[in-house]
Write a structure and sequence with these properties.
The protein is of the alpha/beta class. It has eleven helices and twelve strands. Helix 2 packs parallel to helix 3, helix 3 packs antiparallel against helix 4 and helix 4 packs across helix 6. The longest helix is centred in the last third of the chain and has 18 residues. It is globular, with a radius of gyration of 19 Å. It binds guanosine-5'-monophosphate and manganese (II) ion (MN).
């Protein structure tokens, strides 16, 4: 079962939340639907309980999630005085980026996450790799105290489930995640609306960019890889992260065991998105490279030029594939 409501850590989290007045909620850099959905969902739940809540994320909310209720209130940095910090969907403290500042060091931090690679950096750590999304854990947290789920909360949390499972298609999709989705739909969230807005709509420029990347993709020893350069992205006037969907799309290629998408960023870093078929895991290789993630979808961010990063990452992936024979699934 995804999130066992009998877990003692749930009681401990509720105890901390119960005595805290001002709470800072944080999520990861380059946020995805689960990051934003969990942040807004828990934020609304805590405000409904009378808490003074600040929501922070280092990077702007992607346009894809701009329609979710409450996005306008998300700030880039957690400034001010807080009794409690809750970190959502972050596998390591680096993932909080600028949203977390040094002067928060003395404030107790609760770490709520579903990445198998989580480094357990909080005072309290609730890490559940069986949950398909952090949003599923937020629902379990609310259900533990029978907190009412408003339509807004349900919409935010279902967005997290839908985006992290690509609408319930990833191999970790199970009865518990479907049950959670059903509960959120019963609370008023629209599955077709969320799926269309968060997964099935993108600007034509993104498709053109993907077209260039697809044309350049290479397949060797089970690894399919491609790249998106800064110049390409700029020529289509695109910023930030439009490559997550590309990695997912490429993972449908039958000949590929692992997919790698290299995306050159504006700051001299290269964002690396990894995907693996069931029976192979990219979580460990991502962790070794300073990132993290899930067995089937992971990533890391490396400094250096594209050619160097490609060499380092592809070497690691091939070494991993040679050492770990692919299991039957
Ligand atoms: P995506 O390829 O969609 O950006 O990311 C897939 C998964 O890998 C997500 O679960 C995400 O949290 C994780 N991931 C992506 N990039 C990084 C990174 O730079 N560092 C860490 N720790 N995880 C990452
Ligand atoms: Mn997630």
């Amino acid at each position: 079962v995804g999130s066992d409501p009998g877990l003692p850590v749930l009681g401990a989290i509720h105890e901390q939340v119960g005595v805290a007045g001002r709470i800072l909620l944080l999520t990861h850099v380059v946020p995805d639907g689960d990051a934003i959905g969990s942040l807004l969902g828990l934020g609304a739940l805590l405000r409904d309980r009378g808490k003074d809540v600040t929501l922070a994320c280092s990077d702007p909310v992607p346009g894809l999630y701009g329609w979710l209720p409450g996005t306008a209130g998300i700030v880039a940095r957690g400034n001010g005085r807080f009794d409690l910090v809750i970190c959502l969907d972050c596998s390591d403290p680096k993932r909080m980026g600028q949203a977390y500042s040094e002067d928060l060091k003395s404030v107790p931090l609760i770490n709520i996450d579903h990445h198998i690679t989580n480094t357990r950096f909080g005072l309290l750590n609730w890490v559940d790799p069986a949950a398909v999304a952090t949003a599923q854990m937020i629902l379990a947290l609310a259900e533990h105290k029978a907190w009412p789920i408003t339509v807004d909360v349900a919409t935010c949390l279902l967005t997290g489930l839908v985006t992290d499972t690509r609408s319930f298609r990833t191999p970790n999709t199970d009865q518990a995640s479907m049950q959670a989705a059903l509960g959120l739909m019963e609370a008023g969230a629209s599955l077709p609306d969320i799926t269309r807005r968060a997964l099935d709509q993108r600007p034509l420029a993104v498709i053109r960019l993907w077209g260039q990347a697809i044309e350049r993709c290479q397949l060797e020893r089970g690894v399919l890889w491609t790249e998106v350069t800064r110049d390409q992205r700029q020529s289509w006037a695109l910023d930030g992260n439009s490559e997550s969907g590309l990695a997912n799309f490429l993972s449908s290629v039958r000949e590929a065991t692992v997919v790698v998408v290299f995306a050159e960023q504006d700051n001299g870093l290269v964002d690396v998105g990894l995907r693996a078929v069931p029976g192979t895991s990219v979580a460990e290789v991502a962790l070794r490279l300073g990132g993290g993630g899930h067995p089937q979808a992971a990533g890391c961010t490396l400094a250096g030029d594209l050619a160097y990063v490609k060499r380092v990452v592809l070497h690691e992936v091939w070494t991993m594939l040679e050492q770990e024979p692919v299991e039957d699934t």
